[in-house]
User: Fold this.
Amino acid sequence: MFEIIVAGGWVMIPILGCSVVAAVIAIERFLALRAERVAPTQLLNQVWHWVQEEGITRERLEELRGSSPLGQILSAALGSADQGREVVKDRVEDAAVQVVHGLERYVGVLGTIASIAPLLGLLGTVLGMMRAFSVIMLHGSGSASLLAGGISEALVTTAAGLMVAVPALICHRFFERRIDTLAVDMQDRTVRLVDALGAERKAPAAARKRA
Assistant:
């Protein structure tokens, strides 16, 4: 393996660096974007229990905000629930933008790596072919060992660039899809909470009118 890396020349250094960065980001995002960590299953039920039984206090809102990305959005809805539906909608949208931005952290780097790794491989290929042609010019086509060194450099960097780019691109698309799915799920749960809060406020008003 070391001999192959050496054969690729100095271009292998940034390619290997890209592979390490891509691997670290992929592992970190895979752990960070777990559904139960982003949008816990029982969180909405817990929040509704607070609303009906215990009441929403500042401490509860802080606890909810720090619990998960979904908690951040729900806390924004609860914190402005008494200011009208339009205000709640604006606050929820602002919180959702911040949450999605946090979920997308480092994912763009994977896309960048998927784009530049093949270019680095192509650069190594060009340099390797230049070396091969230089050998031909200086020593003729009979110097097989020197000629093979340039060709080897060209082939190794191309393969290495593709080996880094393909997994990085797959991870990039996978995480983008995961984020979209989580965003839709969080939106659905938040809408259910906002609708439930609205219905709860309308019930006492209707009872007073009948009285």
Q: What stands out?
A: Residues 2-200 form one domain. The chain has one domain: 2-200. The chain is about 85% helix and 0% strand. The chain has a mean pLDDT of 82.
